[in-house]
Amino acid sequence: MIIVMQAHAEPKQIEAVVNRVEELGYKVHLSRGESRTIIGIIGADEHLIQQSSFEAMDGVEKTMRVMQPFRIASRDFTQQDSIVKVNGVEIGGKRVVVMAGPCSVESREMILETAHAVKEAGATILRGGAFKPRSSPYSFQGLGEEGLRYLAEAREQTGLPIVTEVMSPDEIEVVAEYADILQVGARNTQNYSLLRALGKQSKPVFLKRGMSSTIQELLMSAEYILSGGNMNVMVGERGIRTFETATRFTFDVNAIPVLKELTHLPVVADPSHGTGKWNLIPPIAKAAVAAGVDALMVEIHPNPAAAWSDGNQSLTFERFAKMMQDLRPVAEAVGRTI
Predict the structure, then answer these.
(1) Distance between CA 26 and CA 28 in Å, rounded?
(2) Contact, 210 vs 190, CB < 8 A?
(3) What's the sign of the alpha-carbon dihedral 212, 214, 219, 221?
(4) Which residues, 6+ apart, have CB-to-CB distance to 294 below 8 Å?
(5) Global pTM?
(6) Selecting from 3.20.20.80, 3.30.70.1140, 3.20.20.140, 3.40.50.720, what CATH number does the domain 2-64 have?
């Protein structure tokens, strides 16, 4: 449910409505436009809508139901684009943010070398997996907390915020101790216990689309986090399973403008997993920027041929730097920057 205030409603009138919502036991999300303020009520049910007397309060123009099943994630909840702020980096604004790093943290030396290369090329967030969900139980599963410590050291040396994956509710506390953004991978998009737990903490969450998830299912998963009170959520397209075998997955570039239309949340593209081939990453990254994405997540490695995981879809430092250069005119053409 949302409450639309009258044009140029007075601050004390807005405050009175907010206080009333909170008295009823609900949380609010304020969206301030040039002439109107919209108050979103988090957790509102049909009983509140039917029994509320908000329209009788001074300064209130009308109340409205959010028609989409994903209520808080919907554009109906707020027309204003949400911006997730991470240590001075804004995701969802004019700048297309680039997150880059290895699939897995393999050693201290490797992640420190990569972090400096990421920063030098112009990316602003370092990615790296410490806990790795793998299709095979015999594959490398990550260094765990040791890898988190190496990521934290890389942040100290470069100033880059770090994003890394969390796989279960039990891991949230330790991962949040080190990471700036908590990532939910494709295999956990509908792990509702994990999503509920992430909604109860305040660190930003990057939620990837499941490999067989619809866009609505992705946004309903985001709703689990948002409804818990954590509004710092980003959603990501990382490729879906289709009948095509020429690429690892099929990168759904359609999803980017669809998501931008349906939700106010920042949208992230992962062309590395979306293609599974390093040579396809730069053109798909360009397509994602042209389509309106707010951030890119790209895998890079000092020596992809020797990578412990996902070497085929990792760029070398040189290729990553070249891609960053090539992305700038594309971003400029659509009114963005890299």
Answers:
(1) 7
(2) yes
(3) negative
(4) 91, 92, 93, 96, 97, 234, 266, 267, 268
(5) 0.87
(6) 3.30.70.1140
Question: Is 226:287 a contact under the CB 8 Å cutoff?
Answer: no
The domain limits of the chain are 2-64, 84-333
Per-residue pLDDT tens, the chain, 338 aa: give them. Answer: 788 888 888 889 999 999 988 888 888 888 776 667 888 887 666 566 556 688 889 999 888 777 788 989 999 888 889 999 999 999 999 999 999 999 999 999 999 999 999 999 999 999 999 986 656 665 655 788 999 999 999 999 999 999 999 999 999 999 999 999 999 999 999 999 999 999 999 999 999 999 999 999 999 999 999 988 899 999 999 999 999 999 999 999 999 999 999 999 999 999 999 999 999 999 999 999 999 999 999 999 999 999 988 899 999 999 999 999 999 999 999 999 99
Please name which of 330, 216, 335, 210 lies closest in space to residue 282, comparing C-alpha atoms.
Answer: 330
Query: What class, spelled out in words, does domain 84-333 have in CATH?
Result: alpha beta
Q: CA of 302: how far to CAs of 106, 236, 312, 320, in Å? A: 11, 25, 13, 11
